[in-house]
């Protein structure tokens, strides 16, 4: 599970087994998790985060979209 980014209490990562899916990022804080597609940025699944926190995470994923896509491509296109 490569960690791509840490921001405040959030960890942004993907699983090595995610190769067959479109580019996406998982986010966790404590026991809460979410999965966001990266192009276009949108929520796929969420467990535990409030609606306002999901909105904040959407903004963060959009802000770091280029960096997250670069990390995805570097990892999976080797």
Shape: globular
Task: Give the ordered list of helices and strands.
Answer: EEEEEHH
How many domain units?
1
Share in helix: 25-40%
Tell me the fraction of residues in β-strands, as a range.
35-45%
> What is the strand tally?
5
The low-confidence parts are none
Overview of the molecule:
The chain has one domain. Strands 1-2-3-4-5 form a 5-stranded antiparallel beta sheet. The chain is built from 2 helices and 5 strands; from the N terminus they run E-E-E-E-E-H-H. By secondary structure, it is of the alpha+beta class. The relative contact order is 0.21. The chain starts with a strand and ends with a helix. The chain has helices spanning 51-63, 65-76; strands at 3-7, 10-13, 24-29, 32-38, 41-47. Strand 4 and strand 5 (41-47) form a beta hairpin.
List the helices and strands and how they pair.
Elements: E1 3-7, E2 10-13, E3 24-29, E4 32-38, E5 41-47, H1 51-63, H2 65-76
Antiparallel strand pairs: 1-2, 2-3, 3-4, 4-5
In short:
The protein is an alpha+beta fold and 78 residues long.
């Amino acid at each position: 599970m490569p960690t791509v980014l840490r921001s405040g209490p959030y960890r942004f990562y993907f699983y090595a087994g995610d190769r067959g899916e479109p580019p996406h990022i998982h986010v966790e804080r404590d026991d809460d998790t979410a999965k966001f597609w990266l192009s276009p940025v949108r929520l796929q699944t969420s467990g535990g985060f409030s609606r306002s926190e999901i909105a904040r995470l959407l903004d963060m994923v959009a802000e770091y979209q280029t960096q997250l896509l670069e990390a995805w491509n570097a990892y999976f296109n080797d």
